[in-house]
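If you are new to this repository, start here. Below is one unmodified record pulled from the training split, so you can see the exact layout before writing a loader.
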Amino acid sequence: MTIVGWCLIIYALIIFDNARPEMATVVTNYFGIEVRENWLEDVFERLKYLLWFCAVTSFISLLLNWYLNITYHKRFSMAIVLLFIVSAVAVMLLGAIDP
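And here is the target side for that same chain:
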C-alpha cells in the first residue's frame, strides 16, 4: 500500500504541473508569448480528489501498520507517516487556493 500511495503522490505532482498557472518569464514577455494565468478547474478538481484518495490510502495503511506493530511487534514505517503528512498538507493547501 505504501508503494501505491507514493505512486499516487508522484502522479499528483504531474497533474499539479498541468493544472497550475504558467510562469511568465523575461523570455515570454520579450517574445509576447501568451501564458495561462489561472488554474485549469477540471484538472484542479481531479488533483484534489487524487490527493484525498492518497491521504485516505496512507491513513488506512498507517492504521494497518499500527495494528501490525502492536500485534506482531514489527517495526513502524516512517514512510507511511511521511506520505500521510505530505498528502494531508497538500489537500489543505489546495483547499486554501481554490481557483
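Two things worth knowing about this chain: The helical segments are 2-19, 26-31, 41-72, 78-97. The chain has a mean pLDDT of 85.
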